[in-house]
Amino acid sequence: MSTPSGFDELIHPSTRLSVVALLAATEWADFPFIRDSLSLSDSALSKQLHTLEEAAYLEIRKEGGGRKRRTKVRLTARGRTAFEGHVAALRAIVEGAGPAATRPASQHHAEAGR
């Protein structure tokens, strides 16, 4: 089976996919909200955000200064399009498993012996 159109290797790792999925549901998200929602360390989240920002999938905005400094993150139009394409590709993969995936295991074994 070939990889469906839209499958995005950059988004696919579970941590990045979780970040992008979380951001797809909102306009802007604060760094602590993302970190806590996904149970990530500051450094792990920063690394993933940096990778996605380099691909122009995210916009990162820093506001304020000193102790009141806040980091906000959002998906760019490119990031949203990539996420939607990746989700569609994953659905195609799952649906490509076909009706055999929905039959009882006993039927699978019986058909395999034919």
Short description:
This protein is of the alpha+beta class and 114 residues long. The protein has helices at 14-24, 31-38, 42-54, 77-96, 105-112; strands at residues 29-30, 58-63, 70-75.
Describe the structure.
- The protein has 114 residues and is an alpha+beta fold.
- The chain has five helices and three strands.
- The chain has a three-stranded antiparallel beta sheet.
- It is elongated.
- The two termini are 22 Å apart.
- The mean pLDDT is 88.
Annotation keywords:
114 residues; alpha+beta; three-stranded antiparallel β-sheet; 5 helices; 3 strands; 53% helix; 12% strand
Q: What integer value in Å does the Rg equal?
A: 19 Å
End-to-end C-alpha gap: 22 Å
Quick check: average pLDDT? Answer: 88
Q: Report the sheet with the most strands, covering strand number, pairing sense and barrel closure.
A: 3 strands, antiparallel
Structural class: alpha+beta
Layout of secondary structure:
Blueprint: H1 14-24, E1 29-30, H2 31-38, H3 42-54, E2 58-63, E3 70-75, H4 77-96, H5 105-112
Antiparallel strand pairs: 1-3, 2-3
